[in-house]
């Protein structure tokens, strides 16, 4: 046994030789004395522990071998007395037997209010000692978490059981180690615990008040936000903490009291938002302004005339103040706070003083030749300073511009390193989720993407000549393009394809994405919008660089390839608009030489861009067809995209003059008739103005009047079919231009049938469908006008039957016109599929006729919940994706038709 003394060896021998629990229990009194001796080293304690055996100690703890002449508390006390001696040794504190019986210790401390312990509170105290020793080690912390120690310790403190501070200390240690994971998905223990501590914090007038502030900070910092936030408004702790902090920070206090109060304020603001500071009904701004001033002053006190090392010594406090300032700045930028001029001046002065101190320290770091060798923790503190500074710069402040320009290269260097580390971490996490081995060596720098945080400030900075020159000289656009690709990989989410055999079956609800995934997607959308704004500013203000740079050509191709993927996802509307307009600006700047007419990606991009511009306004929503109104789907975000829309329209005009084939493509591409009509109207106005000298405003008004008249009455049988449009033009043009009515009518008819013509891909679709389906065409409108359209476009050869409502007593949505088509095709309605672009006629009529299914191709987004289609597609060429497996289905039923 080596280093074990003779007395301990003798004791071990007695323990092993014991024939009964009574003999073994007697020997424990010898163990108690020996284990506290100087010669009882770690090795001796381990051997003693194993000689006793935890099973025997557990018997004593649970009272299963209690004798009539000896109360159970005696056995418990002896066992715990021995265990507290053993627990001080790390090897024994984490011994499997010790960890396996953590629930026994928890049961003792959780029932400390029982009558059993009234006369012997030392038992509870010793059980806490064992738990505290176990909680010092990672294996012990894990064991405590696994048996629900968080919930139990929360209940102990909430119910004011004996020795609640010990329970609280263990709990804080656990949540600080495991963070949100420690709390699980049930917010009740957290709320109950924090309600009680916050009440104690608000009412305690001793120095313990500030110990509680530190504990509250740790608990708020570690909580599971997803579960805690939804019910926090119904709890008492937000108001209790507000009251206590208000009282503390409006009193004369010292540094030891102010520091924990400011840290707690920062943590609760980080959790609940800056709005929490406006809890005073009489003067809601008072505490907000006080807190902002105190944090600005604290930053100056900690940073002014200090070295970086001195500033870093109080990094936790300074970072907490940074958080308050950043939240305050972002809130004030939202224009929700009505400040008087005097208050505005006071806030600006405070902030400028704080940021002067921040810039001063950052300048010292940037000038240090060893700046690249800083430990990770110090780099993170530097990142925190840059983060709060760029929040200030994002508000277009002109303060300290020269100092900021000098810092930009250092800030870019730091941001680029941070971005690459963060991207590596995200990639590693993705690989882990896909089952690949994960490199766990991720630095603290990988926890934050500083470049992402710089983007809003950079939008403003690149407008300034000096900052833009610095950005371009450092080739920062290359990193920004990398960031664009990275954030696109997060934003772009493709749903798995539905097997053909499942397409006509009842739809199963798709699994929802994880909240963190949705949050990451939202943040990356915002990042891409900022990146678009930066690239737009560079494109407009540095045209020569853009024209000569391969990077910007690569960026344009990125937009060509990816913009169409954003369609029909409402959350992507703002991003869709920014990418579309950035592409137009690049297209205009780089000219026709970089754009090939036969590049399909360019055609898809142009289609998506014009789709964005077209969908913003609708004619049908107004009683006046010449007046456009913002469509419902754009209204929510119109404040963000109104200026963008006008820039897009202006830029598209410029693009059409530089790349003329795009306007031809726009007309020939076979999009929804409304889009083509709008383009044709623009073209007509150009013809009237350029070829016939009609003033632009008169040409615009005449074109609008003609389209309104034609839509109201597309045919009049008293005129020849080709003469009716000319008659309408004569009525819509001013008297001195009526002589051109016949010519402009011919131009209009030419454009009308040109933009309505079927494209090659649609013709191919129809020819392919006819191999497996019967096809029918149903159209509403006057007989002559509609048949003229059908004949001019050569549609009859693609359809097995054609119905025009003008020839019949019904029109869509009357079910009879659909049933008539089924009759002519010799199919039953339940074997027929309706494909249309209008909910109120096509889809509603198909539903009323009890057709097999309805497929909607929306001209505009529609929020209506009535008569919802079975399927929605964005282009008719996507129709095969939602049709049944045609050869198989055709064999299983007599006939199937698509109308």
Short description:
64% of the residues lie in helices and 3% in strands. The protein has a six-stranded parallel sheet, with helices on both faces.
Description:
The structure is a single chain. With 899 residues, the chain is mainly alpha-helical. Helix content is 64%, strand content 3%. The strands form two sheets. The chain has a six-stranded parallel sheet with strand order 4-3-8-5-6-7, sandwiched between helices. Helix 40 links the parallel strand 3 (774-779) and strand 4. It is elongated, with a radius of gyration of 38 Å. Belongs to the neurochondrin family.
Main attributes?
899 residues, mainly alpha, six-stranded parallel sheet, 43 helices, 8 strands, elongated
């Amino acid at each position: 046994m080596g280093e074990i003394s003779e007395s301990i060896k003798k004791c071990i021998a007695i323990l092993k030789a014991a024939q009964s629990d009574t003999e073994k229990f007697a020997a424990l009194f010898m163990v108690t004395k020996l284990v506290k001796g100087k010669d009882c080293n770690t090795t001796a304690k381990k051997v003693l522990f194993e000689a006793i055996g935890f099973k025997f100690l557990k018997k004593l703890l649970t009272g299963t071998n209690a004798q009539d002449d000896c109360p159970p508390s005696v056995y418990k006390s002896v066992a715990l007395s021995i265990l507290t001696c053993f627990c001080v040794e790390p090897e024994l504190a984490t011994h499997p037997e010790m960890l396996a019986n953590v629930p026994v210790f928890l049961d003792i401390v959780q029932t400390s209010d029982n009558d059993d312990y009234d006369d012997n509170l030392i038992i509870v105290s010793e059980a806490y000692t064992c738990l505290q020793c176990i909680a010092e080690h990672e294996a012990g912390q894990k064991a405590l978490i696994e048996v629900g120690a968080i919930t139990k310790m929360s209940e102990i403190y909430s119910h004011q059981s004996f020795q609640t501070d010990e329970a609280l200390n263990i709990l804080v240690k656990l949540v600080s180690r495991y963070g949100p994971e420690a709390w699980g998905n049930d917010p009740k223990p957290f709320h109950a615990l924090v309600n009680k501590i916050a009440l104690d914090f608000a009412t305690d007038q001793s120095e313990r008040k500030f110990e509680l502030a530190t504990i509250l900070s740790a608990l708020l910092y570690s909580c599971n936000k997803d579960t805690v936030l939804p019910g926090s408004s119904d709890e008492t702790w937000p108001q209790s903490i507000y009251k206590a902090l208000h009282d503390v920070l409006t009193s004369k206090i010292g540094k030891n009291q102010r520091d924990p109060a400011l840290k707690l304020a920062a943590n609760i603001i980080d959790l609940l938002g800056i709005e929490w500071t406006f809890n005073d009904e009489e003067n809601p701004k008072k505490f907000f302004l006080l807190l902002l001033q105190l944090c600005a002053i604290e930053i100056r006190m900690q940073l002014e005339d200090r070295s970086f090392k001195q500033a870093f010594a109080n990094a936790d406090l300074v970072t907490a103040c940074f958080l308050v300032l950043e939240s305050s700045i972002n809130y004030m930028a939202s224009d929700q706070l009505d400040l008087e001029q005097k208050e505005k001046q006071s806030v600006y002065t405070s902030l400028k003083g704080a940021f002067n101190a921040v810039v001063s320290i950052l300048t010292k770091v940037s000038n240090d030749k060893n700046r690249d060798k800083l430990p990770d923790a110090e780099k993170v503190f530097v990142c925190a300073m840059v983060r709060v500074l760029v929040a200030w710069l994002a508000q277009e402040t002109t303060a300290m511009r020269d100092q900021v320009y000098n810092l930009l290269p250092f800030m870019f260097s730091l941001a680029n390193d941070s971005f690459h580390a963060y991207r590596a971490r995200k990639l590693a996490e993705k690989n882990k989720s896909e089952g690949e081995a994960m490199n766990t060596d991720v630095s603290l720098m990988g926890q934050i993407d500083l470049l992402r945080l710089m983007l809003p400030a950079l939008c403003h900075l690149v407008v300034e000549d000096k900052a833009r020159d610095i950005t371009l000289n450092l080739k920062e656009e290359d990193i920004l393009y990398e960031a664009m690709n990275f954030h696109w990989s997060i934003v772009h989410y493709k749903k798995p394809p539905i097997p053909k055999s499942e397409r006509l079956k009842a739809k199963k609800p798709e699994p929802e994405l994880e909240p963190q995934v949705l949050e990451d997607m939202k943040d990356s959308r915002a990042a891409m919008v900022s990146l678009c704004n930066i690239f737009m500013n560079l494109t407009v203000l540095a045209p020569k660089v853009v024209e000569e740079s391969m990077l910007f050509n690569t960026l344009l191709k990125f937009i060509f390839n990816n913009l169409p993927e954003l369609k029909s996802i409402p959350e992507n509307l703002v991003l869709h608009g920014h990418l579309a307009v950035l592409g137009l600006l690049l297209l205009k700047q780089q000219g026709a030489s970089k754009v090939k007419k036969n590049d399909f990606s360019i055609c898809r991009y142009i289609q998506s861009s014009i789709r964005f511009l077209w969908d913003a306004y609708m004619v049908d929503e107004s009683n006046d067809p010449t007046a456009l109104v913002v469509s419902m789907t754009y209204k929510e975000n119109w404040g963000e995209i109104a200026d963008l829309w006008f820039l897009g329209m202006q830029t598209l005009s410029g693009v059409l003059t530089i790349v003329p084939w795009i306007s031809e493509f726009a007309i020939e591409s076979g999009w929804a008739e409304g889009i083509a009509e709008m383009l044709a109207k623009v073209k007509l106005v150009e013809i009237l103005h350029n070829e016939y000298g009609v003033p632009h405003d008169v040409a615009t008004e005449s074109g609008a009047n003609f389209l309104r008249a034609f839509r109201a009455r597309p045919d009049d049988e008293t005129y020849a079919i080709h003469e009716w449009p000319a008659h309408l033009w004569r009525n819509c043009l001013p008297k001195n231009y009526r002589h051109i009515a016949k010519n402009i009518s011919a131009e209009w008819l030419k454009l009308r049938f040109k933009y309505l013509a079927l494209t090659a891909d649609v013709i191919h679709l129809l020819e392919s469908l006819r191999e497996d389906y019967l096809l029918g065409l149903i159209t509403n409108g006057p007989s002559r006008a509609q048949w003229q359209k059908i004949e001019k476009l050569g549609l009859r050869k693609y359809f097995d039957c054609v119905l025009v409502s003008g020839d019949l007593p019904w029109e869509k949505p009357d079910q009879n016109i659909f049933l008539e088509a089924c009759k002519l095709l010799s199919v039953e309605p339940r074997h027929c599929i309706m494909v249309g672009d209008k909910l109120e006629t096509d889809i509603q009529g198909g539903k009323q006729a009890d057709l097999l299914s309805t497929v909607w191709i929306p001209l505009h987004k529609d929020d209506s919940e009535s008569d919802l289609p079975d399927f929605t597609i964005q282009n008719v060429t996507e129709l095969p994706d939602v049709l049944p497996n045609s050869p198989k289905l055709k064999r299983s039923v007599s006939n199937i038709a698509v109308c």
